């Protein structure tokens, strides 16, 4: 039986930031498509552009993991609609391990 890391005890061995960046790359493949994007995703991309730049975001350090966590339901809805199983699998992992 595989030993699972309890995220409430430690984040050791969990690459939350890396997983979030990978998910964002998967998401960008979709939301950068003019046929798929909309005003919501355009605003989301503006927030992504400020990820990791607290000076540009009025002192708020909203990294990719924060944005994935904040918009997890929107991301899930889009990935389900597009039937992106790889992204959904990663999203589930991020939710279980890091959110």
Give an overview of the whole structure.
This protein has 99 residues and is mainly α. The chain contains 5 helices and no strands. The chain has one domain. It has helices at 16-31, 39-49, 64-70, 72-81, 85-98. The longest helix is centred in the N-terminal third of the chain and has 16 residues, at 16-31.
Alpha-beta classification = mainly alpha
Count of the domains: 1
Biggest β-sheet strands, sense, barrel: none
Proportion of residues in β-strands: under 5%
Low-confidence stretches: none
Distance N terminus to C terminus?
24 Å
**H/E topology pattern:** HHHHH
What general form does the structure show? Answer: flat
- Strand tally, please? 0
In angstroms, what is the radius of gyration? 14 Å
User: Would you tell me the overall average pLDDT?
Assistant: 87
**SS element count, helices:** 5
Percent of residues in helices comes to: 55-70%
Outline the fold blueprint.
Elements: H1 16-31, H2 39-49, H3 64-70, H4 72-81, H5 85-98
Helix pairs in contact: 1-5, 4-5
Give a quick precis of the structure.
The chain has five helices and no strands. With 99 residues, it is an all-alpha fold.
Distinctive features:
single chain; 99 residues; mainly alpha; 5 helices; 59% helix
């Amino acid at each position: 039986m595989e030993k699972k890391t309890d995220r409430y005890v430690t984040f050791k061995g969990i690459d939350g930031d890396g997983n979030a960046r990978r998910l964002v790359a998967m998401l960008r493949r979709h939301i950068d498509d003019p046929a798929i994007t909309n005003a919501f995703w355009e605003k989301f991309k503006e927030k992504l552009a400020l990820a990791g730049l607290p000076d540009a975001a009025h002192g708020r350090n909203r990294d990719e993991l924060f944005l994935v966590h904040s918009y997890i339901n929107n991301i899930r809805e889009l990935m389900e609609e597009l039937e992106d199983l790889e992204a959904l699998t990663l999203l589930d992992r991020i939710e279980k391990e890091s959110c």
